[in-house]
Specification:
Its cofactor is heme. Belongs to the catalase family. This is Catalase. It is a single chain. The protein is built from 12 helices and 12 strands. By secondary structure, the protein is of the alpha+beta class. It has 2 domains: 293 residues, Catalase core domain (Catalase HpII,  Chain A, domain 1, Beta Barrel); 65 residues, no CATH class. Strands 2, 3, 4, 5, 6, 7, 8, 9, 10 and 11 form a 10-stranded antiparallel sheet that branches. The protein has a two-stranded antiparallel sheet with strand order 1-12. Helix 2 runs antiparallel to helix 3 and helix 10 packs across helix 12. The mean pLDDT is 94.
Length: 484
Amino acid sequence: MTKNNLTTSWGAPVGDNQNSMTAGSRGPSLIQDTYLLEKLAHFNRERVPERVVHAKGAGAHGYFEVTNDMSKYTKAKLFNGVGTRTPMFIRFSTVAGELGSADTVRDPRGFAVKFYTEEGNYDLVGNNTPIFFIRDAIKFPDFIHTQKRDPKTHLKNPTAVWDFWSLSPESLHQVTYLMGDRGLPATLRHMNGYGSHTFKWVNAEGEAVWVKYHFIADQGVKNMTAEVATKIAGENPDYHTEDLFNAIENRDFPSWTLHVQIMPFEEANTYRFDPFDVTKVWSHKDYPLIEVGRMVLDRNPENYFAEVEQATFSPGSFVPGIEASPDKMLQGRLFAYADAHRYRVGINHNHLPINRPLTPVHNYQRDGQMRFDGNGGGSVYYEPNSFGGPTEVPEHKQTPFQVTGLAEQVACDSNDHYTQAGDLYRLMSAEERTRLVETIVGAMKPVEKEEIKLRQIQHFYKADPEYGTRVAEGLGLSVPQEVR
């Protein structure tokens, strides 16, 4: 077979398609990595006009109320002062399906929250899983291609899905989560939400900690069987959307209690897992959940397109007291999400009512398609200036952080893809394990190449021998001798 070299769009050979260029193993990512920027920018423009991912979704308005003051850890006002209320909007979604796809498919659910704070909008763009399939944004376009339709058949392609996963062992933890019971939530109201990434909180004294977000459903977590999910998908593909709307309309307001895990800043250098690896979780024994407040959804949208379809979220929409971590996947999302909205909705998407902050906006951005406000009028349009235009606020500069290492395309520090996946498997009850194995076997049977199945079986076996053996038996195969 002739080997074809992978190239950029301008024909230059690609030296590394697995690792983005960072300053040292923990980053941050470098803007000089033009291949990473090309992949992400091109990927954002591959679908018109629906979202390239998370196309099918439902949304609601509500509020967040602080129940435990967090000013010790962050100066972000929405988390300071017991009783502080912040209006918010949330969008739930499936990841891989198109705008008209069924709600009850096995897929992660997007859990994107927009807080309209007195310091600007803060977007927490997470999922109903605390982890993800990959840990470097350079792999995201390829991963999503496997979840979309085959360009030849225009059908979903399980061979592509499992080929990618088997060649990306860091996906094993999330695959185990997705193929388990929580891959099919009973309703949007009966699932947890997670920020997934690690973020940085900074208090008024400039002291920083690392943080992970957990929205725990006050209704409890409930799931549905694969048989029920398939039946509902055929009978009412908008089941989750309808359930959420009706619950709020009937004043059965769903709510979630927000907790955080907090890691002292310096402990990130010594923790037994890379705390910035989004395929890993932090032990609750090491970093217990701390209650922050309660989110309540109490108002349905008046117009789906204006409020849900045109809602735009970006993990880079921070407010003072909340900053990014060196998480490679997060670093890529900081660019990709806002860029996708500039393409899909327009350069002035933040002027739309659903996205517009409650605080006044003062900047020197002008013009662009669909500019529908005063466009700055006749005010000064550059900075620095001598005419009293808006100026920077030095006390809100991001906190400095040390960057060391060679600028190179380098893998994450750890290649332990199996410990936490195995721990998750062993946490499941016997019945849950059986359903997990049956789901995986059913999903892998259509895979065309046996070598892909055997490669994936080795990953399951490395996580837990029973896990791999049961999947192999279900597929009529044996665990490869070299992994035993």
